[in-house]
Amino acid sequence: MWSYTARRLLYNIPVYLGIVLLLMLALRVNDPANAFLGKNANPEDLLLIKERLGLDRPFLVQYFDLLKSVFSLDFGTYSWANEGITVGRMLRESVVPSLSITLPALILTSTVSITIALISAFFRGRRIDRALMVLAVVGMSVSFLVYIVFGQYFGAYLLTRETGYSFFAIGGYESGLANWPYYCLLPVLISSLVAMGYDTRFYRAVMVEESGRDYIVTATAKGASKRKVMFVHMLKNAMIPIITRIMTTLPFLIMGSLLLEVYFNIPGMGRVLYKAIQEQDFPVIQIFVAIFAGLFILSNILTDVLYALVDPRVRLS
Amino acid sequence: MHRRLHWPQVALAALLCCLSCGCWARKAGASADTGQGKTLTLPIRSAGPGSLDPVRGSTTYDSQACSLVYETLLQYKYLKRPLELEPLLCVAMPQVSEDRLVYTFELRQDVFFHDDPCFENGKGRQMIARDVVYSWKRLADSGIGTRNWWLLESTILGLDEWRGQQNKNDSFDYDAPVEGILALDRFSLQVTLTEPVQRFLYILAMFQMSVVPHEAVEFYGETISRHPVGTGPFTLAEEDWKTSKSLDFKRNGAWREEFYPSEWMERDEERGLHLDAGKRLPLVNHIRFNCYVQDQPMWLEFRTGLLDYAQIPAENYIDCIRKRTHQLKKAYRDEGIEYHPVPLLDFIFRGFNMEDELLGGYSPQAKQLRQAISLAIDLEEFNNTFYNGQNIVYDGMIPPGLDGYPEGGRCEASYTGPDLARARELLALAGYPGGEGLGKIDFYTSLAANSQEQTEMMQRQLGKIGIELNAILLEFPQLIEAINKKKAPMFSFAWGSDYPDGENNLALFYGPNRSPGSNHYNYENEAFDRLYEKIRSMPPSAARTEIYATMRDMVLEDVAFIGGMARTRNYLSSARIRNFKPTEDFWNWPKYLDISPSTPAN
């Protein structure tokens, strides 16, 4: 098992180095120092600012510098758009708000989707199955933005105006468990609602495929109750695609949900990255994207390892 | 034993759960009450300021935040329009020598910096003339990433040379003297200019010229941007600035005696803006700025009473304003909401690169081509379609309200469209009858909200005389780079005046300012340049206004641009807020705002 894990890690190192190289090249197509100085830039200042920001150093030196800071988790570089703040501090401050939304949303979405998918697969072809699938298709056909705009309008604004009480914040974020429902519950519900359509359809397809397997017939023939067949036998064997689905969403949990964070004024990583791109905040974009790429690769490795744990045949193949 | 699930119990538990869900609910508008006395909650329509170090700040949002904490030698009178300067950190307006080269300032002796750990015993010390000298010298220090050197460039005697020398050294010596800036004694300051430039006084009211104590810069180093230590009416602790979220300014309890202005415009009396005259400032204890990247949350929070004023987002304009009369709808008026349209010192234009092979040049044919293009464009259609008809379309580059703005916004020298017959005629004279042989013109514009649609309208309008546009939409930094490198034959751009003087806009056509400077048109006209050098040192007068008009007409005749247009920003204020007279030309006015005693959440 350890050698399998080490092999997966080794395979992915050149991939990561290539991604960081491409990232750095892409960010240097247009002179970042120009963006830093803005409309009143003059050539002398450009030179001085490049020197100050270390952009006058050879490309390879800058490349290894970035790799070093990523591998040592030392993000002491200062942001350009938020002066006086290091990228590391921005990361630290934005991870928790992002996770406050995305983690509960993932748990809620997965639990509800898997349950609905099981029910749907159980009643396969019957009216309840069709009704659930129609709902899922309708749900996934509506844009995320529409959910957010309407959710914010009806859930936060109109409810407050009509009742005189504010159940959900229109925007903002305060840390602490007591503040969580007020600031985060509505975005979590919206996020779950959006994801549920896709996930339910996917999990149902997995369950339906599993329900036709021989071991299900055997379990049924041996007299296992339908509930036991579904929740014990079928669910366990459907875990590989479920794990894949959940694992691939893990990096996105950390990076947050950009639209939700922007509309609900939640200072998470998605919003920070969005702002950084808008403001050409070069150090922040560079480090955030490098981290995201790293997380993505790590989650892929983790998925592979979990596969191997759940199904030892994977290791052999 | 296998326990059975009892569905009625589950349903009851779920119901109880749902009922208890409401326990976190808050009384509407309650978040405005922070328990810190009078609190204003105001919006910043972006992710907020990037830096609270005046020399590194450059955006409106930096200005909004810096202006509460820091102060400048001069400021604008809050209620006077057109804008007028008055002393802020000085006892009086500076004494100016006869040749208008030497300015002598007498500083107030009751100005103290905020209490801060950077000072001995944490107690803010008295501001003296050397602090002003130090703060201005910081603008010259390229090593600290100043973005505002252009404000003092070629202005103060010896400063450019001093800067060149210091930036070559390993460290910047702030104690090294500059010929043109002298602290005569603790509270007197003398500035000698290289030439008598009129804009100098306006510059002194810009937030980038704020006074900063050297102790704070040395103590906080790179993080001074997060630790503003000024002399202003409010303070901002580091923990009160939540990046991209909010800034909580608290009243500076030790602020000197400053009073609400006793000069106002006649129409201000109707709105009771004169009633607080003589009251000690600031009038509130706490100002919270919330940052909004998207307009919807800002608008909904304003409508819920969580914000004391808001700008009307474009998509909500027709919900609250009657388009025909530009008046606030009754439903809003009934809630005590007031409408404040604020015209901006704005110059929106489509520019030509005068060095471009096809569109540039000063030959009769080249001018006729540009004149034809200008005559085919209908700016009023843009105004009605994209700006609710609220913009002011005018001839020239000097926005409304400033000397040099043509009477009624129109002048004879302009080739203002739409006049398609004349446009076709001029196009034929230029050698391109019906646009034949012209080819597609590259038009560079930024990827802003409705640029795509605006470009399509322009393509349609020019198509009527047979001209085709090839639209190139770029992110703003790339657009700037393309223009600076003279790659864009035609481009769309806007210029917000740095100070209320038409000279600022005329400088956009001054030869030595050509790209990468602010003369993006690369306009060259010797007669224009000579006049510009002359007006730069002239105080406001009828003679100067006449020269402004001559210069404006020169550029209009050459058609270096199509335009201009000035936007109007639409503000709504809640029934709660008092003394509200918004402007975007300066940002220290929240110190004059108050909360109506008859409204809740005070």
Q: What is this entry, summarized?
A:
The complex is a heterodimer of chains A (317) and B (602). Chain A is mainly α and 317 residues long.
* Integer count of domains of chain A: 2
Shape of chain A: flat
CATH architecture descriptor text of the domain at 346-566 in chain B: Roll
What is the averaged pLDDT score of chain A? Answer: 86
Count of beta strands of chain A: 1
Range of strand content of chain A: under 5%
What oligomeric state is this? heterodimer
Distance between the termini of chain A: 13 Å
Mean pLDDT of chain B: 90
By CATH, the superfamily of the largest domain in chain A comes out as MetI-like
| CATH fold call of the domain at 346-566 in chain B | Dipeptide-binding Protein, domain 3
What's the total count of β strands of chain B?
25
Helical run tally of chain A: 15
The CATH architecture of the largest domain in chain A can be given as: Orthogonal Bundle
